[in-house]
Amino acid sequence: MKSNKTAISNDIVDKKIERLQAILDSVSSVILEISAKGDILYANQAAVKMFGYSQAEFKQKSVADLVPERYNQGHQKYLNPFFKVNIEQSKVAIEGEVLPVLHKSGQELLVTIDLKPSVISLQNSVIATLYESSKLKNAQDRLDNSNERLRVAKEAAQIGVWEFNVTTRQLIWDNQMFLLYGLDPSTFSGTPSEWKDSIHPEDRAKGLEMIGTAIEKKVTFDTTFRIVTPTNQIRYMKIYGHPVVDSKTQVCKVIGVNYDLTEHFSVQENLKQSLKENRVLAKVAEETINAVVLTDVLGNITWVNKMFTRISGYQLNEVKGFTPGSMLQGKNTDALTIKEMSTALKNEQEFNVDIINYHKNGQPYWLRINCQPLHEQGQLVGFMSIQTDITDIKRLEQDRQSERELLKWTGDMAKLGGWQLNLQTNQVIWSDAVYKIHEIPIGSEIDLENAINFYVPEARPIIQQAITLAIEDGTPWDIQTPFITAKNNKIWVRAVGTAVFSDGIVTSLRGAFQDITELKRAEEQAKEASRDKK
Q1: pLDDT for 88
Q2: Is the pTM of this model over 0.85?
Q3: CA dihedral for 446, 449, 455, 460, sign (positive or negative)
Q4: Cα separation of 428 and 449, whole Å?
């Protein structure tokens, strides 16, 4: 009799386990059970879908296999707190940490992870819950849209991007950072000491202090210091950093950029050293493609080069003894920029500004000015400004802005918007007009599966078939159909779509979306008028 009860009890336990297994496999979040050694003890079906491994393969994997190589030394730091004390006594919980993970194919994914101690396992383990963050996904999508432009800009400006994770004490560098510092990425482990050792000994305290201040006071920093490369080259590095706070208003990471100012400082040093030697100064400054202006301590012009004359129209004898502002500024010169320059000069500080000046003939032009105070033996002797004519650049920026405003205005007037769907990532992009037609807040998360429910029931199969045909053989569509907005307003829309191919494969769909309610109303009125005449 006792044996039967035991069998029945085991059967009940097995059924409960099967039911729990079914529940875990049905949830959309990834659930992993991880041992103290980092081994994967359990993975649900969502994990199989996210990472591409079967459940059998997961049993042969560890956490190190699921994160990019650059994080292999840092992932254990998230697990260690759970195993320092008895797991049953541990109240440790890590929530909302953002990490990249690695798909079986090698593709990186950005996820949010929660870690909690396991209360049901016989082993010392933790439960990890992973899910994609919609805010991060939207931000990543927007970054991806401008990725090519960013890449070109970074390469042209030789800007290195870095990130410091305050929790894991891990540094992440892009390729340009390694080029700037002359370090080998394959031997870089991402520890702060590697960066510290690269700083010039005389500037090391300054570099460490600014990072500490940024984290403690949650302030950005913008400074310059020297580094020493492995080949003992001294470089001047411009560094900008910005602290990022988490939901608890604590600084969780600092991100920023570096770029090399060595050439810039070399030019300044050369000019400073040759200030007393007019022939050398003229030789260097006259050959540059930028305008060069030297002033005394009061800001009065003492010397200009030929490029200054070419840009402004003024000869040296016409401006000598005058301040640049009294000769070159006019009605459209920005007052705040003038104040910024005046304050910097008063405080003997450098400044970088874009400003409108006026040619001798009265024509305005844009200048980008970098001005540096000049010292000799610790005493201010004047200022040197290097000026670049950026009129064409500004005009191009204004033309592009006008084009964007015109497109937006035209779209709003015509109630016409654009959309795109990346079939490889399921990334969806809507223009503002498309959000407005749907009557949902601009920038809201787009639920791709439910988006078709805005169409009236009889139109949904038509839309689904059109999308299927476009994906299969690139057939475009142009459909007019009734539509119900998020605010339950009944309208008519025109949906136009086409396939985009890459190497003969449809990789995305894009098209237009327009509110044609007024057009349909006009058509009905015309039909009624025609019937009345009969």
Answers
A1: 44
A2: no
A3: positive
A4: 11
Q: Calculate the alpha carbon distances from 409 to 66, 403, 405, 439, 491 in Å.
A: 47, 10, 6, 18, 21
* Structural contact between residues 227 and 200, judged by C-beta atoms closer than 8 angstroms: yes
Closest by CA to 195, choosing from 219, 235, 164, is: 164
For Cα atoms 302, 307, 309, give the angle at the middle one, nearest 5 degrees.
Answer: 65
200: which 2 tokens?
Answer: 């010039």
Query: 3-state class of 18 per DSSP?
Result: helix
CA distance 280 to 302: 16
| Complete edge-to-edge strand list for the sheet that includes strand 291-295 | 301-304, 291-295, 379-389, 364-376, 351-358
pLDDT over 60 (residue 274): no
Does residue 377 come out as left (phi exceeding 0), alpha (psi in the -120 to 50 range) or beta?
left
Cβ atoms of residues 322 and 293 within 8 Å? no
By three-state DSSP, how is residue 497 classified?
strand
What letter does residue 411 receive in the DSSP assignment?
A: H
State both tokens at 248.
Answer: 């608890």
Strand order in the sheet with 170-173: 170-173, 159-165, 251-260, 234-245, 221-228
Terminal alpha carbon distance of the chain = 93
Q: What span, in angstroms and rounded, lies between the C-alpha atoms of 152 and 138?
A: 22
* 262-266, 351-355, 483-487: segment of lowest average pLDDT: 262-266
Amino acid type, 256:
G
What span, in angstroms and rounded, lies between the C-alpha atoms of 381 and 298?
10
Residue 347, pLDDT > 70, answer yes
Which tokens in the block code for residue 20?
């729990």
420's CB contacts (< 8 A; 6+ apart) are 428, 429, 508, 509, 510
Q: Which residues contact 413 (CB under 8 A, 6 or more apart)?
A: none
The predicted structure's pLDDT at residue 85: 43
CA angle 64, 69, 70 (to 5 degrees): 120
Q: What is the DSSP string of 268-302?
A: HHHHHHTTT-HHHHHHHHHTSSSEEEEE-TTS-EE
CB 510, CB 420: distance < 8 Å: yes
Close Cβ partners of 62 (under 8 Å, ≥ 6 residues apart): 37, 38, 39, 40
**255 near 244, Cβ under 8 Å?**
yes
